[in-house]
Specification:
InterPro entries: DNA-bd_dom_put_sf (IPR009061), MerR-type_HTH_dom (IPR000551), MerR_fam (IPR047057). One of its GO terms (molecular function) is DNA-binding transcription factor activity. The protein is mainly alpha-helical. The chain has helices spanning 11-18, 22-30, 50-64, 69-81, 86-127; strands at residues 39-40, 46-47. A two-stranded antiparallel ribbon has the order 1-2. The longest helix has 42 residues, at 86-127.
């Protein structure tokens, strides 16, 4: 049961604090992505602690970065286990950083192509010779 001396938050308050739906928050709990058990009031309502909110903020950023659920589950399990597995946690984070770096490079390459092609169209429009530019029917 929740200790009244420690601040606790309802599922709705936590969902608002981490900018996710209540449904998504329940999903995180079902998928075993949280680092501790969620306590309940005598009436059975979930009560979250500040540490749960802090952890959920980390989880949501990792998921937004494209971290696979399996990796996030493993990371959460390692955190729940406590000290002694920091090297494995670090490897998970470094693996995600490498994936993000590849995504950033790919997005930069895509932006460069778009910029180049937009410049081609701008120049043709400026000079008035855009008619038929890449027209597959011409």
């Amino acid at each position: 049961m929740v200790d009244d001396a420690e601040a606790s938050y309802s599922i709705g308050e936590v969902a608002d604090a981490v900018d996710m739906s209540v449904h998504a928050l329940r999903f995180y709990e079902r998928e075993d992505l949280l680092i501790g058990p969620i306590e309940r009031t005598a009436g059975g309502r979930r009560r979250y602690r500040e540490v749960d909110i802090d952890w959920l903020r980390i989880c949501t950023r990792l998921r937004e970065s494209g971290m696979p659920l399996a990796d996030l589950r493993r990371f959460a399990a390692l955190v729940r286990e406590g000290s002694g597995n920091e090297a494995e946690r670090l490897e998970i984070l470094e693996g995600q950083r490498r994936r993000i770096d590849r995504q950033i490079r790919a997005l930069r390459d895509a932006r460069d192509i778009i910029d180049w092609k937009a410049d081609v169209y701008r120049e043709h429009l400026r000079t008035g010779d855009a008619v038929g530019l890449w027209d597959p029917t011409a």
